[in-house]
Amino acid sequence: MNDVRKLFVFFLIFFFIFAPRFDFNVVVHTGFLSVLLLAALVAVRQRTLMFLPKPLVVVAVFFLILAFYHLAIAVFYGNEPIYFFSICISVMVSIVFGWLLASYLFNHGAYTNDLIDQLLVMCTITAIVNSTVILVEYILPELKFAIERVLLQMQDGNINYAEHPFRLRGLASAGGAGLSVANAIAIVFLIFLVVNRKLAGGFALLGAVVVTCSNVFTGRTGLILSLSFTFALLVVVLAQNFKSGLYGIVRAASLVIFFSYLLSFLVNFDLDPEVARWAFEWFDGLIAGKLESGSTEDLERMLYLPDDPIHLLFGIGFFEGVGNIYPRTDSGYLKTILSIGFPLGILLYSVIIFMFFRVNKVSSKYFWLVVTVSGVMLLIEVKEPFLYQNFAARMIFLLSGAAMFILAKRRALAKAIRMNADHIA
Q: What is the DSSP string of 121-182?
C-alpha cells in the first residue's frame, strides 16, 4: 500500500477502536462512520451488495439470539434491556469490521501471511498516538480544553472529562479502566512485534513508556498491567541485544543508559500530588503485601451471586442501571450472569475465546500472544466486562474477524486447487 492508503487505514482503525464522538451540534460517531465507510468501499470493490459470508452468519446468529434472549428476560423482570442488547450488536459489527478490513487490505496487496502483523502494528500505533495526545493534554491544558470542547460529554458517564482536573482520555470516546487496559494490551502487542522482529526494540520501548505514562491519567488497572508489560518488553529487548554480539551489547548498554535517564526524569517530574495519590494508591498496599485501592474495595462490595437458582441459571436481563432485584455491579462476570444466566455466560466467553483463537490458526507463532491476552482479559474480567465491551475488546474482535477472513481465503484457495487438480486428472 502507498502512504496515503496506510494513513487512511490508520484512521479507520483509530476511529473504530477509540470511537471518538464529536459534538458539532450534530453528534458524529466515528466508530459507526468507519464501519460504514469500510463496508461501502469493500462493496464497491466487489461490485456487489454486501452479504455476510457463512462464518459471519454463524457469529451474527449467535449474538442475535443472545441479544433477543436478554431482551425477553429483561422485559419479563422489568429491567432496562438496551445495554446488553447493544453490546451484542456491537460485538457482531466489530467482527464484521475485522473481516472487511482484512478484505480491504488483501484487495490492496497485503499478503495473508503477514496481515495480522500489520494489524497489530496499526493497533499499537493508534494506542501510542492517543497516549501521546493524553500526555500533551496534561502538559498543555489548553489542548485539553480545545479537544473536550468538540468531544461529546456523556451525561450518564461517571467522569466529566472537560471538568476533571487530571482524568484524561485523549481523543477516545471515554477513558478510565477501559482505555487503560487497551493501552496495556497494546504493550503486549509490542512485545510480540519485537520478538518477531516486526518493530525495532528502541521504538517499542519508547512507545511502551508513552503508553504507560498516559495510564497515570486514565486507569490504575491498566497502569499496573502496563508497568509489568513494559518491564517484560525491556527484558526482551535487552536479551535480543545481548545475543547480537559486541554491537548488540553496546546497543543494550546505550538503551540502559537512556532509559535510566528517562526513568530519573519521570521520577523527578513535577506530577501533581493529587494525581500521584490517585494513580499510585495501590503501591502502598503492594509494599504491605496486598494489591488494593479504593476501587478494589468498591469491587469487593459488588461481588455476589444471585441467591435464587432460577436467576443464576437464566439471568434476569440486568446489565446496568438501577436493579429491581439485585444492586448493580461492575464485575464483568456478574454482569453477564445477571444478563443471560450462568450457562449462557460460559457459552458467551467460550465463543469469544474460540474466535480469538482463530488468530492462532493463522499461524502458530501467535499462540503465546493469544494465550497471554486471553488470560489477562479473563483475569481482569472480574473487575469489569473488558472482554466484550470497551476498547481492548474491539482490538480482539478486529483481529478475530481478520483471522476468520484469512482462514476462509485459505480454504477457498485449497478448494480451488483441489478442483483444478481433479479437472486435470
A: HHHHHHHHHHHHHHHHHHH-HHHHHHHHHHB---TT-S--TTT-SS---TTSS--HHHHHHH
